[in-house]
Design brief:
acyltransferase activity, transferring groups other than amino-acyl groups; single chain; 6 helices; binds coenzyme A; 30% strand; 200 residues; Aminopeptidase; alpha+beta; Acyl_CoA_acyltransferase; GNAT_dom; 7 strands
């Protein structure tokens, strides 16, 4: 029996602590999922649609939201497979999204563009941060002339900014009205990571 205000306060604080502990445990369990990267395959088409067929997940990217398995097959075949580095982000070898690194050509091959995205049901579990960390290390090894990876992020895309910051990318500034996406010209934040930068 709780007979005064301080007992109630103590009970509330204990409950809050218990809830916090439970949440932490859940997060830890989720983040122990095994993340692997491999080239995308035609047979990933249906799984890939969970990301690429979702308007909410593609709204901050230049990808036109895919609407069918056939479109997904065609995208994997014509874009992902010939790409210099486009990997499926996998949980238990099942495709849940992608990460790509595309070096520029000729004298600009010192820099590459980084892209990534995963299906909504997997957001906020540390998966993209883990996957991009692996990709960065593979990318600098696969393209020896590469010294800089960069990416452009919309101002409202807080989750993506957080991923980059967790990986040690530096925010270089806001490029005003820099790129066209989903019907409007957007301000984009430019982030970069040099091969010599420490990754936390
Ligand atoms: C951006 C995206 C790839 C992030 O993937 P993810 O697996 O959820 O990323 P992580 O879990 O590794 O990290 C997300 C971080 O953002 C934080 N976050 C997410 N939404 C947030 C919000 N609205 N405000 C503040 N922080 C937020 C999370 O808490 C987490 O940070 P933490 O680890 O410090 O708690 C994912 O949301 C996605 O696929 N978006 C659509 C495609 C896209 O935007 N691609 C990038 C284009 S530049």
């Amino acid at each position: 029996i709780l007979n005064n205000n301080s007992d109630i306060a103590l009970e509330n604080s204990l409950n809050k602590k218990k809830k916090k502990k439970k949440k932490k445990k859940k997060k830890k369990a989720k983040s122990s999922l095994e993340i692997t990267l491999r080239p995308l395959r035609i047979t990933d088409a249906e799984d890939f649609l969970k990301y690429a067929g979702d308007e909410e997940a593609t709204k901050f990217t230049r990808l036109r939201t895919l609407t069918s398995k056939e479109e997904s097959i065609s995208y994997i075949q014509s874009y992902c497979i010939p790409h210099p580095y486009c990997r499926s982000i996998c949980i238990n070898d099942c495709c849940i999204g992608f990460v790509s690194i595309k070096p520029e050509k000729g004298e600009d091959r010192c820099r590459a563009h980084l892209g990534y995205g995963i299906a909504r049901e997997y957001w906020n579990q540390g998966i993209t941060t883990g996957a991009v960390k692996i990709a960065i290390s593979q990318g600098f090894q696969a393209f020896p002339d590469l010294v800089r990876m960069e990416t452009f992020v919309e101002l409202q895309n807080i989750a993506s900014q957080r991923v980059l910051e967790k990986l040690g990318f530096q925010k270089e500034g806001v490029l005003r009205k820099f790129g066209y996406n989903k019907g409007a010209i957007q301000d984009l934040i430019l982030y970069s990571l040099l091969s010599t930068d420490p990754i936390p």
